[in-house]
Design a protein that fits this description.
The structure holds two protein chains of two kinds.
Chain A lengths: L17 H16 L5 E2 L13 H10 L5 E5 L7 H13 L3 E2 L8 E4 L13 E5 L13 H9 L4 H14 L10 E3 L3 E3 L9 H4 L5 E6 L4 E5 L5 E3 L26 E5 L6 E5 L2 H9 L16
Parallel strand pairs in A: 2-3, 2-4, 4-5, 5-8
Antiparallel strand pairs in A: 1-9, 6-7, 6-10, 8-9, 11-12
Chain B lengths: L8 E10 L2 E11 L4 E5 L6 H8 L7 E7 L5 E3 L5 H10 L1 E4 L3 H4 L6 H11 L5 H14 L16 H13 L5 E5 L7 H18 L2 E6 L2 H7 L2 E6 L2 E7 H6 L4 H8 L5
Parallel strand pairs in B: 3-8, 3-9, 6-7, 7-8
Antiparallel strand pairs in B: 1-2, 1-4, 4-5, 9-10
Helix pairs in contact in B: 4-5, 4-6, 5-6
Classes of the chains: A alpha/beta, B alpha/beta.
């Protein structure tokens, strides 16, 4: 695209130059062709520090078109620093429409959560990944982990779960919970809470994972089998919450704990802010709905 | 010793050069099921090179190694695919390193160390894996209440016993040992050797043990090979070689044993 025609003379469309985007797209296509396989790519320096989503930003930049609508969430929230700054980044460099509504977005970049609202066919979920290698903490050698993936030697992954049960009496891993894709590659679903693991399975949306510092891209194409690893006598379970959302009263959603004061008061509310807002607009309310923060003091 | 008509491991003309330097040259021997073979010699004589070649950890410059698979078929190690070779190494074979830290995962518990091979071959039942681990810890004289401790909390002798349990849990038929008693004091060595001897007769194991310690060879092995400068200079039944050494170098080696 001609950068001058877009009216943003200082940047090429979506910040990255066209050659870089082509390179990233090639990596993405390969990743989609081999679900769960980590494709190396020539990750670029981005104008934000590693750990802030440089991998996800590069993937988003590569797939973004002028008529896309972008939503960015961080821990499920549309209004935290990370999501606000990435959204602004693409508003400025690509001039695309942005939204906080899950249903309206064609591309959703996320740091941890998968939105509560089921994704649709045609939507793309882009994950920011800090450590793409699920075997890393047990096997530090990259040469060895690649070989283990190639030869499907995944016994080590269960050693990690075994340790969990031996130490805690149950599988205590609550995020970055390893999954097996289409019965072949074991994949780390980034720091996504395991609550969201079942949503990855057979999702109609395309899921792309970008790790900027580690220079890896991987993907789960639509309608792909994603199975969380477990033991026969310790099956996979998602986290359960005793409370309902204090603002919208939602049950069966992922809740964040919010500390209200220094006297031990706290509340649980939806981590997916868009979902919570929509429910409140639709007339649902929780125990604390309508109360300002002052009410608790 | 079980009687079969084919050797378990058949080594023919194995030669390894590191560039121009020779590691070991033209080594041939057969290992029979249930047999313990000791490879002895001084440092730098090519023992470990030989062990690494025949355990497929190193590719020899020349020569072949054939292994009798469980179905009775004799297969050439270096013509197998890597996946198959690695599968063999973690099921039908064991490798006991001199330094237990090389053979153990030091940051996971003893139980997971023993259970790793089971999980690698597809066992997905936590209770069963743990039960087997407790059983094996018992067999190598480690108390069951240490199952959740990491090997870093273990003494040298315990680590070595744990390494042996970790290797034997899949009931391998062939175990390679590289100086298994290397870093241990003599009383611990004696107990370890006792334990290994018991396991050999219980499990009908075949072992190739590399050692510079003739006492280890005497206690453990049926047959021994003496190496010097990369060549095998003398082979024979252990008692024969130690009591009636023929080569001058072997005579020197035997007479160098300290008498207390």
């Amino acid at each position: 695209m001609n950068p001058h025609a877009s009216g943003f003379a200082a940047y090429n469309f979506a910040y990255l130059d066209e050659q870089t985007k082509r390179m990233i797209r090639r990596a993405i296509l390969k990743a989609i062709a081999i679900p769960g396989y980590q494709v190396p790519f020539a990750s670029r320096e981005m104008p934000m520090p590693y750990g802030w989503g440089t991998g996800g930003v590069q993937v988003t930049a590569a797939i973004l078109g002028a008529d896309d609508t972008l939503k960015v969430i961080d821990q499920g929230s549309d209004d935290t620093t990370n999501s606000v700054s990435i959204r602004k980044f693409f508003e400025k460099t690509a001039g695309v429409a942005t939204t906080t509504r899950t249903a309206d977005a064609s591309i959703i970049q996320t740091r941890h959560r998968i939105p509560e609202e089921p994704l649709k066919s045609g939507q793309v979920l882009v994950y920011q990944v800090p450590i793409p290698e699920p075997l890393r903490f047990l096997e530090p050698r990259e040469t060895e982990t690649r070989k283990m993936h190639a030869l499907e030697e995944y016994g080590l992954m269960h050693v990690k779960l075994y340790e969990d049960i031996a130490k805690n009496g149950r599988i205590a891993t609550t995020y970055a919970y390893p999954v097996k894709i289409e019965g072949r590659y074991v994949m780390d679903p980034s720091p996504t809470p395991k609550f969201d693991n079942p949503k990855m399975n057979d999702s109609p949306a395309l899921q792309l994972f970008g790790a900027g510092r580690e220079k890896r891209i991987y993907a789960v194409p639509p309608h792909t089998e994603v199975v969380s690893l477990d033991f026969e006598d310790h099956p996979f379970e998602i986290n359960r919450f005793e409370d309902t959302c204090a603002l919208c009263g939602a049950e069966g959603v992922y809740l964040d704990e919010v500390i209200l004061d220094d006297k031990g008061n706290r509340m649980f509310c939806c981590s997916d802010t868009d979902h919570c807002e929509q429910r409140r607009e639709a007339g649902h309310s929780g125990a604390r709905a309508g109360q300002g923060l002052e009410a608790s003091q | 010793m079980t009687t079969t008509d084919q050797p378990l491991l058949s080594v023919a003309g194995v030669t390894k050069y590191y560039g121009d330097r020779m590691g070991c040259a033209d080594v041939s021997f057969d290992l029979w099921p249930g047999e313990v073979l000791a490879v002895v010699g001084e440092s730098g004589s090519g023992k470990t090179t030989l062990l690494n070649c025949i355990s497929s950890r190193l590719r020899p410059t020349r020569g072949s190694v054939h292994y009798a698979m469980r179905d009775g078929q004799s297969r050439s190690l270096f013509e197998m695919g890597e996946a198959e070779r690695r599968f063999l190494m973690r099921t039908d074979w064991g490798f006991v390193h001199q330094n237990p830290a090389d053979g153990l995962r030091m940051t996971v518990s003893a139980g997971a160390n023993v259970g790793e091979r089971l999980m690698a071959v597809g066992d997905r039942h936590y209770g069963r894996i743990r039960g087997t681990a407790i059983d094996w810890l018992g067999r190598v004289e480690i108390a069951a209440d240490r199952i959740d401790d990491q090997p870093r909390a273990f003494s040298g002798g315990m680590r070595q016993r744990l390494q042996i349990a970790r290797n034997l849990v899949t009931a391998p038929r062939l175990v390679f040992m590289d100086e298994p008693t290397g870093g241990l004091d003599v009383s611990v060595q004696a107990r370890l050797l006792d334990l290994v001897r018991g396991l050999v007769s219980d499990l009908d194991l075949s072992i190739i043990v590399v050692t510079h310690d003739l006492a280890v060879a005497r206690l453990l092995s049926h047959r021994m090979m003496v190496m010097k400068d990369g060549h095998v200079i003398e082979t024979g039944l252990t008692d024969r070689v130690l009591d009636d050494p023929r080569e001058p170098y072997t005579q020197l080696l035997v007479s160098s044993i300290l008498q207390v």
